[in-house]
Amino acid sequence: MIQNTQTNKHSLGALTGASKCDHYYELHFATGEIAHFYVLADGIFRLLIDPEQNFSENQVANIQLSQFDNTAFTNSQVRATNDSLIIHTGNYQIIFGQNPAVLSIFDESLHHNRMRQSQPLEFSKNETREFLAENQNEFFYGGGLQNGYFSHKGHKIAIKHDQITGKGGVIMPVPFFWSNAGYGELRNTTAAGSYDFGKTQRGVTILAHQDAVFDTFYLLGTTPKEILQRYFTLTGKPMLLPKYALGLGHIGNFCTTLWQPSHAQERNASKIGNNYYTRTKDENAASGKASLNGEENYQFSARALIDRYHAMHFPISWFVPNYGEQPENEQALSFFNEYAQTQGVHPGFWHQGEVDLPEKTDFTYTAADEAAQDTAKLQSESQKERPLVLADSGTAGMQKNAALIFGDIGGNWDNITNQVAGLLGANLSGQPLVGAAVDGLQGGGNAQINVRDFEWKSFTALLFNFDDQGNFSKNPFAYNKKITEINLAYLKLRQHLASYIYTLNERTKSGELIMRPLFSEFPDERANYTAQFGNEFMLGPNLLIAPITNGREDKNGDSRKDNLYLPGKKTLWIDLFTGKKYAGGKVYNNLTFPLWHLPVFVRGGSIFDWNKRDFLLYPQEQSEAISYDDDGTIAASNSYTTKICSKVEQEKLVVTIAPTEGNLTKKFVEQPTSLTIMCDSYPDAVTIKINDQVVPVEEYGSLAAFNHAHEGIFYNTNYGLDEFKKYHKNTQTALQIKLAARDITATEIEITVRNFNYGKNVLVHEITSGVLPSPKLPAVDSSKISAHSFELAWPHESAVQIEINNLLYVGITGKSFTFHELAPNTRYIIRMRYAIRNKVSEWSDLFGVITKHAAKDYAIENIEVTSNCDSKENHPLSYLTDLKLASEWQTSQSVSPEQPLELTFSFEKVEKLSRMVFVPRNIDHNGDPLIVSIAVSTDGENYTTYADHLQWKADTKNKVVGLRDVRAKKVHLTIYQSSGPIVAAREIIFFRAKR
C-alpha cells in the first residue's frame, strides 16, 4: 500500500481476487477495499468502491437504476490473465490491471482504448481522486454551466454551485464530463468536486470529489450524441417545453418595487405613461409603488406592463410578477393570473420552499430541488397542459423537470462571450433547456449592448427580460425607438423560427443539442473543439450565429467583425438578412454590421418550416429535415412529423415532401403548403407532382397576383425578410410555390426544378497565378506582440490571404493587419500570399510568432486571506482572492480610522512580487476603499510598512500598487475609509515577478 501518513491518503492496492455475483462483479484489493462493478447496459458501466462496505446502490435520487435488468451483466464474460482481469461485454473489454490496479476500457471495433486510468485511485477520509490519461487531440466537455467556458482542456473546473453569475461562475454544477475520445463519466454523488483536465499535470485528468465513496458510471459512445443518450438513460430525458415558453418572457417584482419622479435626461429613467420615473429604495422619495393589479398605482402594476407590451406591439408570452417576494394577498395574484390569461399571457409564480400554488398559475420559477414537486402540482391542476418549471440552478437530472435560467450584471460586452460559452457548456452537460436574461439582472444602461444581447439571445432556447433588480429597465422598449424597432424585428423573426426550435427541443431526447459548438456539425476540424471560435455557435444544424462581442466600430458607426469563422470547406454559407454567400473553411475579417444586423449565416442545404408548412429551402447537394409538431398537450401520441428532402444534381433540383406521419386532430389534416426556394436565376421549368400525378400550376408575374391565388408559382426577385426590409432592401431571388389545402397525411409532393443554380459560383477553387509575385516574409513588430494579438506588415498596399495554423484568413487588405482573440503563450505558424479575386500567388515561406504569457499566468494562486470583519453570506472573503473577476466580496459592517479593516494575505511560500491590483466592484462604487496602508512580511510575523495612507478614488479604475523586488510571505492591507457603508471588491490580485 502506498500511503501518505501526513495526509492519510493512499492509493488503491493491487487486485488480489474477483468473483461474479448475482448482478455485479466483486473485486478485492490488497489495501482492503472491495469494489462492485456493474454491467448495466451496452456502453453503461458502474464502479462502486465503498470503504465502509455499505454499497448503497441508490445513492443519488437523480439516477434512474430501476430501468435496468440483468441481461447485459448475465451475458458478460470474465477471464483472467497473468497481469489483469478482463470483463467482456458487447464490443468492450473492461480491463482491471493487477498491479498497479488501473482500469482501462478497450473498444474492439476501434482497436484502441476508449479510456485509461494513468495510476490507481486515491482515497482519503473525505475525498477520492481518479487519474486518467489524456491524448494529445483529446478534448473535454461537461461539468454543467461553467460560465465563460465550454471546452476544458488545460483548465480546472469546480463541481460546486457558487453565487457567481459572471465568468468562472458555476451556475449549474453537474458531476458529469465527456471526452471526444468516446467516453464520459457521471459521478454518483452530490459532494463538491473539481475536475482538472491537464492544468496541474499535463496529459493527466484528475477527478476529485469530497466523498469517501468512489461511485462512478462510465458511458461509452462513438459520438457526443451517443454519450448524451446514455447520460439521459441514467438521469432522464429533457422535457419538452410548452410552446408558449419559446415566446418572449418577463420576470419582475411587482410586490415591493418603488418609483420616484425623474426626467428624460436621467440615464436610468423609464418612461411610464407620459412621465419619467426611476426605481428607488427610499420610501420617502417614492411617489408610486408597484402592484399586481393596480392596488397601489395602476401605471406601476404588472397589468399595466402587459398593456404596455401590447401597446408597443410586443407579443409577451409568459410573465412572472413576484420575483423574490411571496405575495401576502394570494387573491390579488389569482386576479392578475386571470387577467394575464385573458391577454394571451401565461402567468408564472416565483417561490422558495413548498407552497400552495395560486389559482390559474401556468408555470413556476423555483429552485431545482422543487421542480419535480411543482411539475406534479401543475399537472394535477391541468390534466392536458404540459407543465413548465424554471429554475435558477440545478445539477444532473434537472433537464427532465426544469429549464435553467439566470442573469448576470448587464452593460458588459464580456458577458456575451461568457454566456455563449456557458450556454454551450450547459447543452454539452445534458441541459439544453437554458437561457440567460437579456442585458442581465443588474447593471446595464448601454443601449448598444442591450440590443446586441437581445439579437443573439433570440436564437437560444429561452428569451426573457429580468427586471426590477437594478437601476435600469430591461424590457425591450426601454431605450429609443430605433432600439425598440430592432428588438421587435428580432422577436418576429424568432416567431418564424419557433417550429425549428420546437423541433430541436423534441430532438434533445435522442441526445441532440439545441445550441451547438461548431464541432457538433463539423467534427473534422480541430479548431472547432477549442475555445478559439467559442463565441460562435450553431442553433441546430442549420444556423450559425456569431454575436457582436465588442464595441469596435467603423467610421459609420457599424460594428467591426474580425475572426469570423465559417467552417466546412465544401459548405456554402448565406447571410440570413442580405443573402450574401460565403465559402466555408475560411476566417473572414474586416466585416461590418450595422446595429440591426446580427451575423447569422444559413448553412447550404438547410430546410426550415417557417410557419405551418411554409417551407424555406437553401438547396445545396443533398439534405433533409424532419419537422415536429404536436397539439401542445402532455400526451405524446398527439404528435406528428413531416419529412422534407432536397437534392441538387447537374442543375436539377428535386424537393420531396413526404406525407405527414403521426396523429393529427381532424381539424389539422387539411392544410395548404408553401415553399420558398432560394435560387440565383430564373429556372427553365417547374414540375409539380402530387402522389406521382403531375399537377398544372399557373405561374404569376406579380407578387400581388400570386398572393391572391390559391395555387401558383412566382419567381420573386425582391425576396427578403419583411421584418428587416426597412433596414435592407429585399434583393434576394427565390422561387415561391403555393399549393392548396390537401390531406397532408395522404399527400406526397414532389417538385422538380430544372436549370437550377444557387451558390455554385462561390464554391470555386482559387487559381494560383504566376503573374502575382510570391510575397516576401511579412514583418512582425515584437513590440506589438501581446498575449492575445500580434500585427503583421508587408511592403505594399495589397489584398492578402494569411494562413495561421492551417486556418485561412481572408478579407485582409492594406499594408498591415492585427490579429486578435489569440491564445496566450502559443506558437502560431504563418504564411502569406497575395490575392486578386479568385487568383492567388504562391505562398511565402513559413514563419512563426509566439504570443506572450497572459498576465494571469503570473497571478499568485491559493492565497489564504483573513479579516477582522465579517463578510456577507453570499459574498464571502474567499471571493477576494479566487481570481474570478465576476465574484464580489463584501464586508457586513462599515470601517473607520478608529476601527479599520485589517486584511492579511498569506502565500504558500515566500514570493518575489511585482505588483498588487485592487479591482473595484462594477455595479457601483459604494464600498470602494479610499485610504489604505500596506505592510509586508518575509517571515509571517514581523511586518515592514511599504505604503502608508495611500489615497484612492472611488471609480472604475483598478488600483495598482507597484511591489517590484519586494519579497513577502504575507501582505497586510489596512483600510481606514471607504466610499460607502461597507467595503467591497471584485478581487485583490498579487502578481509575482516575471522570470
**If helices are DSSP runs of H or I spanning 4 or more residues, what is the number of helices?**
11
- Strand portion: 35-45%
Low-pLDDT runs: none
Q: Which descriptor suits the 3D outline?
A: globular
Structural class: mainly beta
What does this protein look like?
The protein has 995 residues and is mostly beta strands. The protein is built from eleven helices and 71 strands. The strands form twelve sheets. Strands 1, 2, 7, 8, 9, 10, 11, 12, 14, 17 and 18 form an eleven-stranded antiparallel sheet that branches. Strands 38, 41, 57, 58, 59, 60, 61, 62 and 63 form a nine-stranded mixed sheet that branches. An eight-stranded antiparallel sheet has the order 3-4-5-6-19-16-15-13. Strand 51 and strand 52 form a beta hairpin. Helix 7 runs parallel beside helix 8 (481-496). The longest helix has 16 residues, at 413-428. The radius of gyration is 30 Å and the shape is globular. The two termini are 40 Å apart. The model has no long low-confidence stretch (mean pLDDT 94).
